[in-house]
Design goal:
With about 90 residues, the protein is of the alpha+beta class. It is about 25% helix and about 35% strand. The chain has one domain: Roll (Ubiquitin-like (UB roll)). It starts with 5 loop residues before the first strand and ends in a 6-residue tail after the last strand. The strands form 2 sheets. A 5-stranded mixed sheet has the order 2-1-7-4-5. The protein has a two-stranded antiparallel ribbon with strand order 3-6.
């Protein structure tokens, strides 16, 4: 639910996450201030099919790997990368 303190974030998705959602980018609104973890909670609420993937997903904020406790700000570039396997 959007309020006056909500900001919209664009999140880029890669590999199996992109396939699961059917899009390479999604938008999520969350209340500020927020962390990566809170953003992921809203992503799961909107796209429950990717929840099993998020436990091992790498998160990038402004092209640097981020912890789930990292604060996010308006304008941050956020991307989600599932683990890669293969040879």
């Amino acid at each position: 639910m959007a309020t006056g303190d909500d900001l919209k974030y664009s999140i880029r998705l890669f590999a199996s996450l992109k396939e699961r959602v059917g899009a390479s980018q999604i938008s999520v609104e969350i209340t500020q201030p927020a962390t990566v973890s809170e953003l992921l909670d809203e992503v799961v609420r909107l796209y429950p099919g990717i929840q099993p993937y998020l436990k091992t997903t790498l998160i990038s904020v402004n092209r640097e790997f981020a912890s789930r406790s990292q604060p996010i700000s308006q304008g941050d570039e956020i991307a989600l990368f599932p683990p890669v396997s293969g040879g």
